[in-house]
Structure formats: C-alpha cells, structure tokens
Amino acid sequence: MKRNTAIAALTAAVLVGGGLATTAAFADSDGAETDDRTASAGTAAGQAGTGQSVTERTGKTGRTTVDEAVGAALKAVPGTVTEAELDDDDDHGGRTVWELDVYGADKVWHDVTVDAGSGKVLSDREDDDNGDRDRHAPRSAAVSLDAALKAALGAQPGTVTSVDLDDDDDDDGRRAAPRWDVDVTGKDGRQHELRVDAKSGKVTVDHDDDHDDHSDDRDDRDGDDD
C-alpha cells in the first residue's frame, strides 16, 4: 500500500477503546493452536487505563473509524489486521477508503478495502505476492494494533490516518525488531510519524519526518510569496 500522509483535512477519528479483537488464533502445521500473543482491543484498553475514544479525547467526529473498518474487514476475512490506511486517492472513484492488510485464518494474505463513508467492504482479494509475504509478521507483535494506537495518541493527540506493523529485515539481512508505524494528523494540522515498539509499547517520534513536513510547509509558503 502507498503511504498517504497528506490527509490533514480528513476527520476520520480512530476509536481505540472498543471491544474489537484484531487478532485470531492460528494453527500450526501439526494442528496445535499457536499461542496468540496479540491482545484484543478490550485488553489493550484495560492496559491503557482510560478507555476513551479519540472522539472523546480530541473532540473530532468522523465517519468510519479505524476500529469499524477493522471490524468490517475481519467479518469478511477472519484473521489478523497488520495495516490500515486511510486513502483519498482517485483509485476508488473519488471515494475515501480504508485499505487494510489481513492475514487470514486460511493462512493467506488479503487486501481488503472498506468505504470510509458507509463502512461497507468494497473489495476483498488475495494479495498477489502471497508467496513472498512473511507469515511470521502477524505473530511478531506482543503489543496489539489497538494498544499501539492508544500509545501513539497518548504521545501525540490527533487523528490517526495510518497504522502499519513493520518487521522488515535490516540492511544487513537480520530481522529487525517489530514496530508499529503510526501516522497522526495533529490538532495543528501537521503530520507526525510515530513508532511504537511492538514488544514493549515504547513510543518514539520520528523528528526527521516532522522536520521534513515543516520544511515542506515553509517551502510552500515561500513559493506563494514569489
């Protein structure tokens, strides 16, 4: 999926305190059920302590929230969501949509598209790169998607427009520590990229990304003055 960080005008709020489970248990090849280390949203909310939605915390209202989009996707494809991104490109007939990656209970990767206005699933298709995609990724995160969102918003209040479980290998080929990459549009309209350690839940802010956004904004203003 393309990362779309220019969605500042969108008001799709992210509810992270609901009872939605973003994971499902998977079976090993010997038929034994694998230990599902990724907690449900209810557990994540308990860990976070507040149980507040983004709407309550930021005053924003929205159409389809990320939790609702995840719920719709999992109803269509039971499994584990590893990415959800709000996309307003012209690829969907002018619609704003949520694009989600789901590792299904069938052990197949699915690309699911959910209408951000109605919450309906527009499409569900098997990923073209299923043979190359990592089956380990969905089980690599001890911190759930919901807990990662709550942690990110605790560090940077605003509206989440993208969340992605990243465990790509390092440049030297070693497996990197898994993390959740979370894009947040702050109350000031600026874009912020945060990283949530998928093992510990520790949040770090990508200041280089914030600086680049600030520089781009300054360049745009300078261009307007010419």
Describe this structure in words.
By secondary structure, the chain is α+β, with helices and mostly antiparallel strands. The protein has a single domain, classed as Nuclear Transport Factor 2, Chain: A (Roll), CATH 3.10.450. Helix content is 24%, strand content 25%. The chain has helices at residues 41-48, 54-58, 66-76, 145-155, 207-225, and strands at 79-87, 97-104, 109-115, 121-126, 158-166, 179-186, 191-197, 203-205. The chain has an eight-stranded antiparallel β-sheet, with helices on both faces. Helix 1 packs parallel to helix 4 (145-155). Residues 2-62 have low confidence and may be disordered.
- Radius of gyration, taken over Cα atoms and rounded to an integer in Å: 17 Å
CATH architecture: Roll
Give the class-level CATH name.
Alpha Beta
Give the CATH topology: Nuclear Transport Factor 2, Chain: A
The total of helices stands at 5
Uncertain residue ranges? 2-62
Total count of domains? 1
Helicity level, as a percent range? 10-25%
Overall geometry comes to globular
Order of helices and strands: HHHEEEEHEEEEH
Summarize the biggest pleated sheet. 8 strands, antiparallel
Supply the helix-strand structural class. Answer: alpha+beta
User: What is the strand arrangement across the widest sheet?
Assistant: 4-3-2-1-5-6-7-8
